[in-house]
Every structure is written in structure tokens, then in C-alpha cells.
From TrEMBL:
Domain FAD/NAD(P)-binding: 68-381
Family listed: Belongs to the FAD-dependent oxidoreductase family.
Name used for this protein in its record: monodehydroascorbate reductase (NADH)
Lineage: Eukaryota, Viridiplantae, Streptophyta, Embryophyta, Tracheophyta
Keywords, alphabetical: FAD, Flavoprotein, NAD, Oxidoreductase, Redox-active center
Superkingdom of the source species: Eukaryota
One GO CC annotation: cytoplasm
Pfam family, one: MDHAR3-like_C
All copies of domain Monodehydroascorbate reductase 3-like C-terminal, residue ranges: 400-481
Organism: Turnera subulata
Cofactors, names only: FAD
Top class in the EC scheme: oxidoreductase
GO-annotated molecular function: monodehydroascorbate reductase (NADH) activity
EC nos: 1.6.5.4
Length: 499
């Protein structure tokens, strides 16, 4: 098969040398493409009709036959980028994916939700949540990649890039050639330093399946669980620990849960729900160090105020940082972190792109640079980037911030919780509803509806949220405040769309 592809490439090269014109896209200095250069700020489009050719490189010189496109990463963004290349007929024999994980790309949100459920409550397992099943697409198992002619290099992270030669070096020493490179390396968990016990047995971080498997092994034997961090990870892991019927405590330095998004009033509702499920909270607490027991495993958490909390299992969920190594030389954004890209996810280096968590991109509707750690952005940025790369699409990415969480969804739970937020959490807030059965929070700035959060809404109500957040209608604040129910408040907001 490779010989046939090489013959076709040689024929294309001969045609190009004979004077046939080509449509331009990205440059490749070392012979995989005849393409002119463009800068990160260029508005020139990417076309799928260009003619590519290969020079007489020895096949053995590179570990990937598929040299035209290389994706680095094994998460959501990588899987959705692969699917989009397949949809455009650009993957078979042209795409290589290299990942540090031993698995094909999968839907990572499951790791802190269904994957952590007790074993008798039907926990999620691979291949059940390989991409792109999370958005209703075909499940992309390892066999799917084989069937689509995509070369997969597992458990071998990239450790170096040579921009001039357009090559990547992996940890095992493989040399990979790329024409267009898509960086989809995501994030790594922020860890406690080793000197304060951050690497003790029984201390867990969650970024991949291996991490989740290790945590489950601890939960099976645990009695006292402490979750450090009051954000998404902390809330979801604590809810899962409740399903195991474990003594669970959440510790965080802020005044309330999910301080970056929740208002104090909204956070109080969720905290009450967790407390009803037996979860204890320790707010405004700062950790000095983690202490080991006689067996070498974590046994307690010592706080700055001198107090000690017993724990045989500790989960650290204090945030993440973009996995930019070894791509720092591509160009970083020092304000939001990550690799700087434009509205088509092009970096400052022609032929190199960055998508998903690692990309610092222009958030068009709010006119600022942002880096979003969310599965929805991972999917959409991958699709937008690839379409710009292989078609004539020139429209810039116009993302509407979206966040959600689902907790207590295991069998036997007295109440399953699912909230969604769209937009920007700026301005003053109006809260409607009593949380049971539902609650809504509206963010209003200069009279305009900027963001909205809904807990336990109907499918139709959830579908309304992005319309409201993107349109940013002028709303009658006093009328909204007088709404007697969430349903009435949403009707008032919806009516403002037509004013």
C-alpha cells in the first residue's frame, strides 16, 4: 500500500514540476509539500486541493510512514481532530497520532464521573468512552484507527521538536517527520511538592485512566477520604466517594465551592446537598504538609493552623497547567499560559497548530485571549482547526464559553445533579428557584444578560441557555427578580430575545 501511495505522490510531483499550478496552504521546507509560507496573522486560506510530493527519503529514516499530518496528544482534541480529517478524506495513509498514553484518545470527563463509581454501580469503562461517543459520534476504538488507515504510536511521548527540519523525537528515540503538526497535549495536574508529601502512596491526582485506576484501588480499601480542592475535580470526586459510602472531607482555601463560577448563595445550596450526603467541608484551610503512617502511606494532612485531619486516601484537585513541553519554542502566552494561536489555531510557526486545553486563543465574542480547559472546547477547537487546514474555511473561531458538571449519578443516588453554564460570569447576579427541584442564576452587566446557569433543567430549557448567552439580550432586571419560578424567569429571558 505504501508503494502505491509513493507512486501516486511521485506522479503528483512530476505534474507539479511540469508546471501545473497548485493551490496554496502551509509551508513544508523539506519536501512533503509545495506550499507558500503564511504568518499567524495571515488571512490566507487553507485549501485541500494542493498537490503534495515526496522526495527520495529513505523510509527507514523516519518511524512514521504517514508524514503529512501528525497529531501529538491522546485526549479529546486529538480524537476529534482525527475524526474531522477522516470526514474530509485526509487521514488514510496521511495521519500519524503520537501519544504518551497506551490508549486511543478517550473522553476524559468520564474519569472524575462515571469511572469512579463503585464497581456494583456500572462504572464507565473503555472502550465505552473512547472518542467520539461523547458527542453522539462513532466510538473511535483502536480498531477504528486501523480501519481508517491512521498510524498510532502509543506510550511514547514527544520529547523534542526541530522546527527547521520539521521533525519530532519521541522518548524512545523515534524520529517523526511532519508536514502539518497539531499539538493537542492538553494539561497536566498541578501537584503538591514531594517535600511536603505530594508523592506519598495513597495520594492521587487524576488526568488519565491510569490515575483513575490507581484511585479506585485506594477507594476499595479506604475509610477516610480527603479531597483537596473545591473546584470541578473536588466536587466530582467527593460525590463519587459518597457512592462508596466513605468518610469524605473536602478541604480548600477559598470561602466557598467553585469560587471562580458559583456565587456564595449558589455555592451554599450545593454545599448543603453534599452535607446531606455526609460530606464534611473545611473552608479557608491551608495545608502545611501530608504525613505518612508507619506503613509509608499517607495517614494525615497537617494544616497551617496546626490541626491534623486523618486520611488514608487523599485526592489533590487544585488545578492543571498546560502541557507545553517540549513546544515552548513554538510561542507561549505568558498571561493565560499555553501556546499562542490565532482564530484558526495557527501558531506563529507556519505549519504548526495547537488545539484544546493547551491553546491560548482569541475569545472573539469577549475580545480577549483565553485558554479553556473543557471538553466542549477541545471538540470544537479540533474541528475548527482541521476544517481550516484542509478546506477553504477562513472564519475565525467564535466560541461561547460553556461549563457543566454531573454528580451523584450512580444507581441508588437519592438525587442526580446536573448543571450547565453558558456565557461570561460578570456583573451582578439574580438567583431564581429554591434548588429543589431546580435553580437558575443570571449574570447581568450594563443591562445585558451575559451568562446563565441552570441546575436540573429540562432538555428544552438547557437548549435555551446558549441562545441567551450568545445574544446577550437586554433584560428587564426588576421583572426578572420578581419571577416566581425558574420556568417564569426563563420565559422572561427568552422574551427579551425578540425585543
Amino acid at each position: 500500500m505504501y508503494s502505491a501511495r509513493r507512486a501516486m505522490a511521485a506522479a503528483a510531483a512530476a505534474a507539479a514540476l511540469a508546471g501545473i499550478s497548485t493551490t496554496s496552504s502551509l509551508p513544508l521546507k523539506h519536501g512533503l509539500s509545495l506550499l507558500p509560507a503564511s504568518s499567524v496573522n495571515s488571512t490566507s486560506h487553507y485549501s485541500s486541493s494542493f498537490i503534495r510530493f515526496r522526495r527520495n527519503y529513505a523510509v527507514s529514516a523516519f518511524s512514521n510512514e504517514n508524514r503529512e499530518y501528525v497529531i501529538v496528544g491522546g485526549g479529546n482534541a486529538a480524537g476529534y481532530a482525527a475524526r474531522t480529517l477522516v470526514e474530509h478524506g485526509m487521514a488514510d495513509g496521511r495521519l500519524c497520532i503520537v501519544t504518551k498514553e497506551p490508549h486511543a484518545p478517550y473522553e476524559r470527563p468520564a474519569l472524575t464521573k462515571g469511572y469512579l463509581f463503585p464497581l456494583d454501580k456500572k462504572p464507565a469503562r473503555l472502550p465505552g468512552f473512547h472518542t467520539c461517543v461523547g458527542s453522539g459520534g462513532e466510538r473511535q476504538t483502536p480498531d477504528w484507527y486501523k480501519e481508517k488507515g491512521i498510524e498510532m504510536l502509543y506510550a511514547d511521548p514527544v520529547v523534542n521538536i526541530d522546527i527547521e527540519k520539521q521533525t519530532l523525537t519521541t522518548d524512545s528515540g523515534k524520529l517523526l517527520k511532519y508536514g502539518s503538526l497539531i499539538i493537542a497535549t492538553g494539561c497536566t495536574a498541578t501537584r503538591f511538592p514531594e517535600k511536603i508529601g505530594g508523592n506519598l502512596p495513597g495520594v492521587h491526582y487524576i488526568r488519565d485512566v491510569g490515575d483513575a485506576d490507581s484511585l479506585i484501588s485506594s477507594l476499595e480499601k479506604a475509610q477516610k477520604v480527603v479531597v483537596v480542592g473545591g473546584g470541578y475535580i473536588g466536587m466530582e470526586v467527593a460525590a463519587a466517594a459518597v457512592g462508596w459510602k466513605l468518610d469524605t472531607t473536602i478541604i480548600f482555601p477559598e470561602n466557598h465551592l467553585l469560587q471562580r463560577l458559583f456565587t456564595p448563595s449558589l455555592a451554599r445550596r450545593y454545599e448543603e446537598l453534599y452535607q446531606q450526603n455526609g460530606v464534611k467541608f473545611l473552608k479557608g484551610a491551608f495545608i502545611k504538609n501530608l504525613e505518612a503512617g508507619s506503613d509509608g502511606r499517607v495517614a494525615a494532612i497537617k494544616l497551617e493552623d496546626g490541626s491534623t485531619i486523618e486520611a488514608d486516601t487523599v485526592i489533590i484537585g487544585i488545578g492543571a497547567k498546560p502541557a507545553v513541553n517540549p513546544f515552548e519554542k513554538v510561542g507561549l502566552n505568558t498571561n493565560v499560559g499555553g501556546i499562542q494561536v490565532d482564530g484558526l489555531f495557527r501558531t506563529s510557526i507556519p505549519g504548526i497548530f495547537a488545539i484544546g486545553d493547551v491553546a491560548a486563543f482569541p475569545l472573539k465574542m469577549y475580545d480577549r485571549i483565553a485558554r479553556v480547559e473543557h471538553v466542549d472546547h477541545a471538540r470544537r477547537s479540533a474541528q475548527h482547526c482541521v476544517k481550516a487546514l484542509v478546506t477553504a474555511q477562513t472564519s475565525t473561531y467564535d466560541y461561547l464559553p460553556y461549563f457543566y458538571s454531573r454528580v451523584f449519578e450512580y444507581e441508588g443516588s437519592p438525587r442526580k445533579v446536573w448543571w450547565q453554564f453558558f456565557g461570561d460570569n460578570v456583573g451582578e447576579t439574580i438567583e431564581i428557584g429554591n434548588f429543589d427541584p431546580k435553580i437558575a442564576t443570571f449574570w447581568i452587566d450594563s443591562g445585558k444578560l451575559k451568562g446563565v446557569l441552570l441546575e436540573s433543567g429540562s432538555p428544552e430549557e438547557f437548549q435555551l441557555l446558549p441562545q441567551l448567552a450568545r445574544s446577550q439580550p437586554v433584560v428587564d432586571k426588576s421583572k426578572l427578580e420578581k419571577a416566581s419560578s425558574v420556568e417564569e424567569a426563563l420565559e422572561i429571558a427568552q422574551a427579551s430575545l425578540h425585543v
